[in-house]
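Readers of this paper often ask what the protein records in our data store actually look like. An entry from our holdings is shown next, in its original layout:
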Amino acid sequence: MEGSCLEPFQIFCFATHYLNAFLAQGEVSRIVPSVTTPSSWQPPPEGVVKINFDGATFEKGKKLGVGVVARNSLGQCVAWVSRRLGIAGSGVLAEALAAREAVFLAVRRGWRQVIVEGDCSSLVQKLQSRVRDLSAEGPIVTDVLTLAVVFHSYEFNFVKRSNNRVAHFFAHFSGVSAEGDVDIPPAAVPIVNSDLLS
């Protein structure tokens, strides 16, 4: 495929074949989602990256924003993303786009054991149930679940908004798209630190 220009349908066929071949190699283990919602943000187990996501609407739904923050077992930020999207939509669509951005981040970074958390219960239920979704955000939910097969283990959890404050910050961070690693914007430092003290 290197150096060739393919039509979208050819790319789709290649990707489907590649995914099926990958799935035939072995089972992906899926961590059972937690049943209880903790009262404060909790770090992941050692060797696992926890990725929180949040979506936002601006200008009465004419623009959307997504925020993502990934942290290690010490609660340290290892990556973050803030995107302002020039598309219109609902809050649930923004949340779905944020969940996809969270999984994209994990795939790009090569993380294989992840916990993905968001504060939109209806979206998290769709991700946990893995049932075909015919809503407006259904294709994005399918994208998220398709991307998740590369993980050795993963789970999708619902968290209270109070446990998702850092992702919320990044969803509202700026009018431009930005991302980073361990160096987080100074305005986010007190929020991250308060999670560690809770």
Q: What stands out?
A: DSSP finds six helices and six strands in the chain. Residues 91-109 form the longest helix (19 residues).
